[in-house]
């Protein structure tokens, strides 16, 4: 984008800001320039010095801005440069400019416009002349110097003789001549060289003539001395051109040969066009006195004559250097010139004598310099800092000394050695560490991928990324090595993108250091890499160069000096130090004594070595080894122990080092809370081997936020690390990956998977869904490993926040432990004693959180504490504003923080040197901020951030700082308007996620909140506590715009508006959201809810008015719009494979029932005796009463479809509940609005709504139905509707009678009596058959004495009316086939085989329907419901409902009941053995088969996969019936 914008004097300051953003310049710099009113005209005159001194800009961005501006100005001038005017013809220049101005703008031909144009050109030229980088020339007359020039850098001006030894310089562009043929080019080159050489020799001075360097007199548009370079096709053209010496010098030819050195070709690096190879050709002249003494050299200069087409020689000339020119000696001065030859000889001789050999460089303390650079001036190399290495080829001897590198936190390596994986640095590194092989192309970020996804895909923070920058010799893919020119054509863009991505989006400044480790000759790609890092990192302070060879360093130095100056390059480079010395020096500066050795406990009570690269391959786990921290150097402990302890007692998360320091008596003990002993007891119990025990056990620690729950959990791991294999699960990794790594950890260096130590895994702040996933994955893994039943393999220790930990503990005391702010008497004594010790060692403000905890976070104490803390605070300062912002986020968003980089941007801090960054930041905070802010560092990215020391303190700070002066809504609005925070690059994703959560994320009890909320807690606070819904709407509207009109904000705005009955606005917002996400079922549900609520409001408004057809027409229209929206929601939900949103069906039923109620209560249908039958006639036939014909004209078709659509919706809900028996998922952020009854009691809700629906379409009163017999003259439709009203309208409602048994038997008998006495002749539809059969099965389960139940054979005969094509059968019909045709003991073999075929065919199709129903939703997320078990009876008596089976544990508490079924203990109850029938079968390769069918094996799904024996065994099991088919329960190996 930057290249598309052309700097113009007419730009406003705002346009300048836009251009700077396109260059990715940091926002604080842009704002500063904007404040200083830097417009286009000022931009054209800026230089680096102004940007650095006045704006406080770092060298990197300052350099980038000036360079990009000049490039664009030059690109504007290029057309003018093609026809270069003669020197001095200023008038001609002006005429050309005037002519161009006229051509470009025909209407602007005034003299004034011409002058403006000239002035602009002059300003631009001045700008170019003052801002290009200086550079030094190649060292004079030195062989084998590896030197490089950079295009557009500027050499010092041409010079005359100074002291005869320092060379004078002359520049020639040779731009035109270099394109000529060999003869012409050689003549031109020889002429310029001989002219300059004889001029230098005659006055006895050294000199260098440079070709490819601009002389401003000849080259308009360029600066004098500017390096451009020339294309050199054949170097021998220039070398052979010096053969003209013999033809041009009449005498002393050999002298000239000796003094004129052969041409040297110095490569020119072009950063903009790296694929074009250009050189500066230089010739050194060295007139040694021993050669030139007493001589004057006369030359005949060659000249190619176009007229004769050959080279001719000019007449003899004696030349000399006069100032910066070479001129002939005129006749007038000739005698004097010859007479003074002895004087010049004497001067040369003296100059040569005084030219002492270069003194040896002073001996630098390179060891100290290296230490300071690598530690950023600190005492140790920072463990939290990432290192990026840029390397080339290593020699075998150097590879022996890289131990210092192996202990460092290496983020990535840019490796230019193609053989590195086989014989270079990479091969050596891989012996100790895991690394991922990448190419530069791997770092291309596709448009739709977030940075988080990108870093996750490449595992950038898990293992070192090894980037092969110039091919990889061992790789079969398309990564080949190429020469410099090809590399720059093909890889330059990839390099630029990868460096930009790392420096601008992945790692913030200050969290990493770049080390150029140069161990072989430097090539151009390495120089380009330095340039990219220099510009993207905005300076040089985090870049170090280490180079053993001074010769290799020369080329690097010549390039780097132009960017950041000689002094900076020297200060940040360590040159001439052997790799062995580097190794020994840096190992002393590392926090670990040696290359770390880690050990794990093993089953046979010994220890094994955990190899580092193996540990890194299990990157989703933080593995706690036996001797954790033992390898930490004593110097580091002495230096850091106070800081580590202080951070912990101020509220920081406990580190393993805290426990280690306490264990080794460096600091006081870490207090053991009572909960620690509770959870230890649970762990010991879980480790006891029990025959029925699952290989995966779970324990939960529920804790108040900030009460020390994480400390308790980690304390348990620390104390068990020598007996168990302990690890913390790192966040953001899939359950499948964690399970894979956990299995690898368990089996590492163990001989037999059956005898391994259990793995204790700590999972922090994860939801139940993730824990279930992980448990499921581990169970499958242990099952595949054929682990013996009862062997404890994995213990999952979940540590989660909760606002009511004690109630969670009561729910399941055998699994859960609570940690609260409230201390027991014993804990109070421990805390009081520790408090006294800490008071002696630290000032009270350094252990604030500990003090608060020791007071039990008493509300009154927290209030007093905060009040005292905030005394004298400047409420108007930017620091106080920052405290308020952090407190607001910490109060409402769990685990929120603001990155330190964001804070520095808000405080407008420009910190020049990295080593002072933290000091300067803390210095900028007020006393109060220093006390309440806790500094965090991300364990993965090392990004630094801040939060308030405790959530309760944050809440109180927010309350006291705002008081009556400001509301939380206005503070939130201010936060939204903080451009600096919102647009700041680093940590932007996390910050914006927290900000979104502040406005969108609802409270969830399941996530540890106090209640389930309808809106984000902040929005509810504004509506309820501030009593200002309008403010809440204003906030969400602003957030909607701030987040790029995010449809999720529009959805919330629609919900908020309809909550406060602002329906027109709600409709507009819902439509806005749906327009952006037209296939999102949750947003379509919200759109339907708008009309549903609107309909309810309209009904309420006309409640006490006469309900004429005209009066209710508006409400009817709104209801039908709601129904249409919910039907769209249903279609979207059915099409979405990743979700199961049933809210559309539920809401459609609710609106339809309300609409039926409204219609039936209208005057048209309620005021006459036959009103109800009139209403039914209208809804079910083509009949339209006269009273409604016109008023309801648009709705007739929709209203007549209402019966069918509502019945279909009820049928869908029934089927869905038949599979899973669960309501709507409440854990997602997109939780739909629906009736509370559907959420908590879905079966009751369905029964109620089915009954309500039946009531509107039947003429019977429910009370009367119970009391009287059924009239004989009812139609089949009326009977069906009465059945529906009685609760028999669908299979789920019928089966729910088994759960809710009040009056169930008489109701079912009434339902059965409504069906024809001979159902086979009645020719029912599928649904009627299903409902009829289910009613009989249910009635039989409830009452064995009833006479109304049809025999099994009659029901089986009725099943033959189901479609022969099983694909057309309803799932409920297939389910009944599996039940009714299950063979009986007394059946003949033929009968059994026939029945098995029917059952197997039904199961086959049930399985297909099941997977369609499941979509891509995880199986454990929607667990199958088992309706019946196979009992020991015959006929219908063999079906035992689940409720009856579960009744054997009804005397136990809920938690005990759950544990008994989960562990399998309940199956051992003698009552179950009497009630149920065990069937026999066998297992084959982990698959359960039923013993019975002869023709085709019948596989049975195991309900609990780990219960399947691993070997092929004969088994017995109980049989359950689900909508997926039969399932095997309580599988036992047959003895």
Which SSEs are present, and which pair or pack?
Layout: H1 13-22, H2 27-35, H3 40-43, H4 48-53, H5 59-82, H6 90-104, H7 111-131, E1 148-150, E2 168-172, H8 182-203, E3 207-211, H9 235-241, H10 244-248, H11 253-259, E4 264-269, E5 278-285, H12 289-292, E6 298-299, E7 302-305, E8 310-313, E9 317-322, E10 325-328, H13 331-339, H14 341-354, H15 366-375, E11 386-391, H16 403-406, E12 410-415, H17 420-423, H18 425-430, E13 435-439, H19 451-457, E14 464-468, H20 484-490, H21 492-506, E15 512-518, H22 524-536, E16 543-547, H23 550-564, H24 566-571, E17 573-575, H25 579-587, E18 598-601, E19 607-610, H26 612-617, E20 621-624, H27 634-649, H28 656-663, H29 674-687, E21 696-703, H30 709-720, E22 725-729, H31 735-747, E23 759-764, H32 768-784, E24 794-801, H33 805-811, E25 816-819, H34 825-841, H35 848-854, H36 859-869, H37 878-892, E26 898-899, H38 900-906, H39 917-924, H40 927-932, E27 933-937, E28 944-948, H41 951-962, H42 968-977, H43 979-983, H44 988-1000, H45 1017-1024, H46 1029-1042, H47 1047-1059, H48 1063-1076, H49 1081-1101, H50 1109-1135, H51 1143-1160, H52 1163-1166, ...
């Amino acid at each position: 984008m930057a290249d598309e914008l052309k700097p113009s004097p007419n730009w406003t300051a705002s346009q300048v800001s836009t251009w700077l953003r396109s260059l990715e310049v940091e926002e604080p710099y842009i704002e500063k320039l904007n404040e200083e009113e830097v417009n286009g005209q000022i931009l054209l005159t800026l230089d680096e010095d102004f940007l650095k001194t006045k704006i406080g800009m770092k060298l990197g961005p300052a350099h980038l801005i000036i360079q990009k501006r000049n490039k664009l100005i030059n690109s504007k001038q290029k057309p003018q440069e093609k026809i270069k005017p003669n020197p001095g013809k200023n008038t001609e220049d002006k005429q050309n400019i005037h002519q161009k101005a006229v051509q470009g703008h025909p209407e602007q031909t005034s003299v004034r416009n011409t002058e403006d144009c000239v002035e602009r050109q002059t300003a631009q030229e001045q700008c170019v002349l003052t801002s290009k980088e200086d550079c030094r020339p190649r060292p004079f007359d030195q062989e084998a110097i590896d030197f490089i020039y950079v295009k557009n850098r500027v050499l010092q001006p041409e010079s005359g003789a100074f002291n005869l030894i320092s060379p004078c310089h002359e520049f020639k562009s040779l731009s035109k001549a270099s394109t000529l043929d060999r003869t012409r080019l050689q003549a031109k080159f020889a002429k310029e060289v001989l002219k300059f050489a004889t001029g230098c020799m005659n006055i006895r001075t050294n000199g260098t003539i440079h070709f490819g360097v601009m002389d401003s007199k000849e080259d308009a548009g360029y600066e004098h001395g500017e390096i451009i370079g020339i294309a050199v096709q054949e170097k021998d053209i220039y070398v052979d051109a010096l053969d003209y010496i013999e033809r041009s010098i009449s005498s002393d030819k050999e002298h000239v040969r000796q003094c004129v050195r052969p041409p040297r070709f110095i490569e020119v690096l072009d950063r903009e066009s790296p694929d074009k190879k250009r050189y500066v050709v230089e010739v050194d002249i060295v007139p040694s006195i021993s050669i030139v003494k007493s001589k004057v050299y006369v030359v005949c200069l060659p000249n190619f004559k176009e007229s004769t087409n050959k080279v001719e020689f000019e007449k003899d000339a004696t030349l000399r250097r006069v100032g910066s020119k070479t001129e002939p000696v005129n006749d007038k001065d000739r005698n004097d010139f010859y007479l003074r030859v002895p004087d010049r000889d004497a001067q040369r001789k003296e100059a040569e004598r005084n030219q002492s050999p270069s003194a040896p460089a002073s001996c630098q303390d390179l060891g100290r310099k290296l230490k300071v650079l690598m530690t950023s001036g600190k005492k140790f190399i920072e463990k939290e800092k990432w290192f990026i290495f840029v390397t080339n080829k290593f020699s075998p001897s150097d590879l022996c000394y890289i131990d210092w590198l192996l202990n460092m936190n290496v983020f990535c390596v840019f490796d230019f050695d193609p053989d590195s994986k086989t014989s270079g640095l990479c091969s050596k590194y891989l012996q100790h560490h895991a690394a991922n092989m990448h190419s530069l192309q791997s770092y291309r970020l596709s448009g739709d991928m977030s940075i988080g996804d990108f870093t996750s895909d490449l595992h950038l923070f898990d293992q070192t990324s090894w980037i092969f920058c110039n091919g990889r010799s061992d790789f079969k893919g398309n990564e080949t090595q190429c020469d410099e020119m090809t590399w720059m054509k093909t890889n330059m863009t990839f390099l630029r993108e990868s460096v930009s991505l790392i420096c601008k989006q992945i790692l913030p400044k200050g969290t990493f250091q770049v080390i150029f480790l140069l161990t072989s000759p430097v090539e151009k790609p390495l120089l380009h890499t330095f340039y990219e890092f220099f510009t993207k990192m905005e300076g040089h302070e985090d870049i170090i160069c280490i180079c053993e060879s001074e010769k290799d360093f020369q080329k690097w130095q010549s390039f780097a000096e132009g960017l950041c100056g000689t002094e900076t390059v020297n200060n940040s480079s360590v040159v001439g130090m052997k790799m062995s010395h580097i190794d020994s020096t840096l190992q002393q500066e590392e926090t670990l004594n040696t290359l770390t050795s880690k050990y794990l406990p093993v089953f046979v009570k010994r220890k094994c070595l955990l190899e580092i690269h193996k540990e890194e391959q299990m990157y989703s786990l933080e593995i706690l080894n036996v001797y954790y921290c033992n390898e930490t150097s004593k110097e580091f402990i002495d230096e850091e122990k106070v800081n580590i302890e202080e951070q912990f007692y101020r509220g920081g998360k406990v580190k393993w080092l805290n426990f280690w320091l306490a264990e080794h008596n460096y600091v006081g003990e870490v207090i053991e809370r009572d909960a620690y002993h509770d959870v230890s007891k649970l762990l010991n119990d879980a480790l006891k081997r029990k025959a029925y025990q699952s290989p995966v056990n779970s324990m939960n620690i529920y804790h108040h936020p900030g009460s020390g729950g994480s400390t308790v959990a980690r304390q348990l791991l620390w104390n068990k690390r020598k007996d168990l294999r302990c690890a913390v699960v790192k966040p953001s990794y899939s359950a499948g990956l964690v399970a894979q790594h956990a299995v690898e950890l368990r089996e590492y260096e163990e001989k037999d998977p059956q005898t391994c130590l259990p793995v204790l895994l700590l999972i922090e702040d994860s939801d139940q869904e993730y824990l279930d996933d992980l448990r499921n994955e581990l169970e499958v893994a242990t099952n595949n490993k054929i682990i013996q039943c009862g062997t404890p393999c994995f213990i999952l220790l979940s540590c989660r926040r909760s606002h009511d930990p004690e109630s969670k503990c009561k729910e399941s005391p055998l699994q859960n432990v609570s940690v609260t702010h409230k201390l027991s008497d014993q804990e109070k004594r421990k805390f009081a004693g520790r408090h006294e010790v800490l008071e002696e060692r630290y000032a009270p403000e350094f252990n604030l959180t500990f003090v608060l905890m020791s007071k039990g976070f008493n509300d009154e104490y927290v209030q007093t504490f905060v009040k005292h803390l905030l005394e004298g605070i400047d409420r108007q300062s930017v620091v106080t504003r920052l405290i308020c912002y952090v407190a607001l986020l910490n109060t409402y968003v769990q685990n929120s923080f603001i990155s330190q980089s964001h804070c520095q941007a808000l405080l407008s801090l420009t910190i020049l040197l990295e080593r002072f960054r933290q000091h300067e930041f803390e210095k900028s905070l007020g006393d109060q901020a220093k006390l309440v802010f806790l500094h965090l560092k991300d364990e993965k990215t090392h990004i630094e951030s801040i939060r308030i020391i405790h959530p309760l303190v944050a809440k109180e700070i927010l309350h006291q700082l705002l008081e009556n002066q400001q509301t939380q809504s206005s503070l939130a609005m201010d936060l939204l308007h903080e451009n600096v925070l919102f647009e700041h690059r680093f940590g932007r994703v996390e910050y914006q996620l927290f900000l979104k959560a502040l406005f969108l994320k609802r409270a969830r009890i399941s996530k540890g909140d106090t209640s389930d909320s309808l809106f984000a807690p902040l929005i509810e606070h504004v509506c309820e506590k501030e009593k200002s819904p309008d403010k809440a709407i204003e906030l969400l509207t602003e957030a909607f715009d701030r987040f790029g009109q995010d449809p999720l904000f529009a959805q919330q705005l629609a919900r908020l508006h309809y909550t406060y009955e602002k329906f027109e606005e709600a409709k507009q917002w819902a439509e806005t959201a749906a327009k952006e996400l037209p296939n999102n079922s949750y947003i379509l549900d919200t759109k339907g809810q708008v009309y549903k609520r609107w309909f309810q409001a309209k009904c309420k408004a006309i409640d006490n008015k006469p309900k004429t057809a005209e009066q209710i027409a508006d409400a009817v229209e709104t209801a039908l719009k709601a129904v249409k929206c919910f039907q769209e929601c249903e279609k979207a939900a059915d099409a979405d494979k990743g979700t199961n949103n049933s809210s559309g069906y539920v809401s459609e039923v609710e609106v339809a029932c309300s609409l039926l109620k409204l219609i039936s209560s209208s005057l048209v249908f309620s005021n006459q005796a036959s009103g109800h039958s009139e209403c039914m006639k209208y809804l079910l036939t083509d009949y339209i009463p006269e009273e409604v014909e016109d008023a309801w004209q648009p709705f007739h078709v929709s209203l007549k479809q209402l019966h069918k659509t509502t019945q279909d919706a009820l049928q869908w809900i029934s089927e869905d509940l038949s599979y899973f028996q669960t309501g709507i998922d409440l854990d997602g952020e997109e939780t739909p609005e629906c009736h509370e009854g559907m959420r908590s009691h879905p079966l009751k809700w369905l029964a109620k709504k089915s009954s309500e629906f039946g009531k509107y379409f039947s003429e019977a009163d429910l009370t009367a139905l119970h009391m009287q017999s059924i009239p004989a003259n009812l139609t089949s439709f009326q009977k069906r509707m009465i059945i529906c009203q009685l609760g028999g309208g669908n299979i789920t409602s019928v089966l729910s009678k088994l759960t809710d048994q009040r009056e169930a038997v008489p109701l079912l008998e009434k339902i059965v009596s409504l069906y024809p006495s001979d159902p086979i002749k009645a020719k029912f539809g599928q649904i009627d058959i299903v409902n009829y059969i289910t009613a009989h099965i249910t009635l039989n389960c409830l009452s064995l004495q009833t006479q109304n139940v049809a025999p099994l054979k009659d029901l089986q005969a009725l099943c033959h009316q189901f479609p022969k094509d099983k694909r057309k059968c309803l799932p409920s019909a297939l389910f009944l086939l599996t039940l009714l045709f299950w063979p009986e003991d007394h059946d003949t073999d033929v009968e059994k085989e026939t029945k098995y075929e029917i059952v197997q065919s039904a199961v086959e199709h049930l399985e297909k329907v099941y997977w369609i129903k499941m979509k891509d939703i995880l199986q454990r997320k929607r667990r199958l419901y088992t309706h019946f078990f196979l009992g020991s009876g015959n006929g219908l008596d063999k079906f035992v409902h689940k409720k009856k089976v579960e009744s054997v544990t009804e005397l136990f508490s809920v938690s005990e009941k759950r544990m008994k079924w989960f562990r399998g203990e309940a199956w051992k109850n003698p009552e179950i053995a009497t009630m149920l029938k065990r069937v026999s079968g066998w297992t084959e390769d982990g698959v359960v088969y039923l013993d019975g069918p002869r023709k085709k094996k019948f596989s049975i799904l195991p309900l609990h996969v780990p219960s399947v024996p691993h070997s092929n065994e004969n088994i017995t099991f109980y049989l359950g019936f689900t909508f997926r088919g039969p399932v095997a329960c309580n599988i036992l190996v047959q003895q």
